[in-house]
Amino acid sequence: MDSQRSLRIGLEERIATLTVNRPEKLNALNGQTVDGLARFFRDAAGDEGIGAVIVTGAGDRSFVAGADIGEIDGLSALEGRDWGKRGQTMLRIVESFPKPVIAAINGYALGGGLELAMVCHLRLAASSALLGQPEVKLGIVPGFGGTQRLPRIVGKGRALELLLTGDPITAQRALEIGLVNAVVEQGELLSEAKRLALRILRNGPVAVELILQAVDRGLEMPLGEALDWEVAQYALSCSTEDVQEGTRAFLERRKPDFRGC
Ligand code: COA
Asked: Is the pLDDT of residue 3 over 70?
């Protein structure tokens, strides 16, 4: 199936590397790739062999250069709504994934590519990467969450500059405005992403999942409700064997051996 060819999946040390694999189209997201991503993340959520996911693009030019413009061309309003919903549904599955997802941005992250990177929990960019929301240059509005997540990450003014000009920014500028967590050399990108994943995997897995949930759901709530939500996650983590192991290991001056329960 094309959806299988358009995604490559590797697994090492419980870290899955998911590569969008349409290099001849600079890894633009067509419908089958969108559905393949949704399927992967749905299946991987309950797969104990996977502790973290790295998302990247094939080749050294592009992470994802956007939604496939061929799929947008000539859409009616209703078809446009369905296409937007299809992308948004997939991206929400990634955003609410219960294990850490790291975007390794190895080149262009434009339009749907930046929207995909923004739902990942952490973002590393190659120094040569370019990030932007160029939809306005095509006369359309970003439809996979760009108008909503970009201002939440970088603030309204900076988001509007990117959204209204459509001009991309460099990885260094993305770092300055908090759009990426770090910038590294292209050749180091995947190894840095793996190192970051391994740092997280050393921690209590239940706490990692509950922190992801606390932030994901809490950010959408008024502060009072969000604090109640946090305390519910905190209370849950108090009852785990992991917290007993973590505190005991600290007192015994040894590394914890977390079991994820
Ligand atoms: N959708 C479909 N195809 C795309 C694409 C996209 N978003 N982005 C790139 N491609 C294709 C090109 O059509 C070209 O295919 P072809 O060789 O069959 O003609 C191939 O990828 C290489 O792209 P090309 O434009 O020749 O490379 P470039 O180095 O000159 O420019 C970009 C690179 C990223 C600046 C340019 O491709 C671009 O602007 N892409 C569109 C970005 C965009 O608007 N994304 C949001 C879409 S909603």
From this structure: no
